[in-house]
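Q: Could you write out the predicted structure for this multi-component system? I'm mainly interested in how the pieces pack against one another.
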Amino acid sequence: MMSPITAALRALAMAFALAAGSAYAHEGHDHGAAPPPVSKTIAPRGEAVSSGFELVAVPRDGILSLYLDRIQSGEPVPGATLEIDTPAGTATAQPAAPGVYRLPAPWLNKPGHYDVMVTVTAGSDVDVLPVALTVPDPTALVTAAPKPVSARQQISATVTQAVPALAHGVRNRINRADPVLMAVAGGSFLLSILVVLAVRGRRRVPALALLAVTVTVLLSASAFAHGGEDHDDKAIRGAALIQPAPGTAPTDLAQRLPDGSVFVPKPTQHLLGLRTVMTEIGTFYRTIGLPGRIIPNPNASGVVQSSVGGRLSPPQNGQFPRLGTPVKKGDVLAYVTPPVARVDVSDMRQRQGELDQQIAIVQRRVERYLKLAPSGAVSQVQLEEAQDELKGLRDRRTALDTVRLEPEALVAPVDGVIAEAAAVAGQMANPGAMVFQIVDPKSLWVEALSFDALGGAENASARLADGRTLPLTYRGSGLADRNQAIPVQFAISGDTSGLRVGQFVTVQAATTTELQGLALPRAAVVRSSNGQDVIYEHTGAERYEARQVRVTPLDGNRVLVAAGLGAGKRVVTQGAELLDQVR
Amino acid sequence: MIPWRAALLTSVVLVAAPVCAHETAGKCGGRVTNAGNYGVELVAKGQTVDVCLLDGSEQPVPAAGFKATAILVEGGKPARIALTPADGNRLTGQAQVPLGTAPRGAVQLTAPDGASASGTFN
């Protein structure tokens, strides 16, 4: 005789055994490849990986499409030779697109399980990848569809299906401590109490009790039967779906699977240009972010200033150089005509008069000497002195004329582009005022303010507000504090197109602090809808899983994963944003 | 209390089974890997390629009726070797070129009932 406790123990043990069986049944036989995703919109497919390649084979309409990618980077492998051992002999697949190969395979029209071996030769890399393909029976889908049956058959069928479904449902719900089960049990209990109370109180309506019990049983049965469907794939394929037209394979759609991973078929991966990188632990230098702004290179820029106050006038061509005009060193950019004050004018008139008078006197003297000199009445020395005096007086007179008209030419001190122009025709320029600023746009510097003296500042980069990164070369730092910080100057060593002087940048300068961790490109980290940083790990050939990570900035381009990811994982570095949009 | 022990044993076996599935050293002196429900042990010596058949618990399975094809990569070139049953649980075949002792590649197995399975050696 068995005690109730022993019976309960056995039941419990059996429940454990059943639970263990269902949990491990998937993983026992298939190693390496992830189980094919269970979804109504995904065609059957096989995948295989080797040390160098990742292969996905999709049979459709008698054609086997093979997608070949590099396993580490995820880029398609074009120009490879794929020799395939099929049940119908050895065949070579034809390239259809970069990384896509097709093989006519009429043998795939017959449902069943197929094992093919694909020998991939891409350059010097050779690999053998066995792929298992399962072609489902289309007739099985049709026969499973509901057919018109008699009411009696339907009831008996319902009862025979409902009993195992009920048991299955109860087991599942016990396993999961399902609230629906609790609710149904509790509801039944309450209802029966109500019925008992009603019968006791009135003692006349047994029919009411019968009705209540029937309703309770029916309600619970329907609840369990519904639960059973969720866990049985065959039931889903047979009954719960809209039947696809015979002969048409389901289309592959990128989708988020119930377990949270993202299924992206290979054609979509190629379209989105997804690329991955294998994470590895490395040693990096900690960088600090400094506020900075773009300045012109002090040796390749200049200002044009007027040395005297005066009226601005355009150069010979009649046009002041406008902003952005390229200029050469020595080009005249403008003229400044110094104004002549009224008192100076009268002074000059007086001077002119005096000079004119003296010139006239000396002129006459020279003429007289010229006549007398041949006869010897006047010495040659006297004649020459008179001539020199006349020449000197004339020069002074000429200088007095031109000094009023001669404007100062403002010339470009360096080659470059007009960055700033303040010239308006007729404007009075103050002495020392900047009229033009000339900057060489190909030679720009960055000046940052640092609160510490930078040790290893040789390795630095600047990040713009739009995400662009500029490599920098350390040029020097000041010793005098400016706003309690040290100005540090860097030269931009890369392409400077599109940059403006005065633009704000964030300078990431390396310090001497060493850090160990996984460095990833900044584009690999996406902000999920709940505000957390996630990266996408490429777990299967067509599966990506979001991993929450904690990142610290490393430099302008890269971040360091502090927690949440180990080494040797494939992480999406290109197209992670697009992947995050898949619903 | 027999069902109680049986249940316990079942659970232990189910938990332990996936652990034994990796490429390991075998009894024939080669490398063992999983091919579907079978284990295959690959022994390459010169031009001769032997494959020993094992079941899930590493016990020999008679090779009669089985067919197998091995594609092994040697010197950057794939070699295709058809294997035929020999004595006991052994299938054997001859390669065109001498192979190393641990070539990379795959073995495809076809059981007498037509079911096929593959195992890889890396």
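A: Regarding packing and overall arrangement: Confidence is low (pLDDT under 50) at residues 8-21 of chain B.
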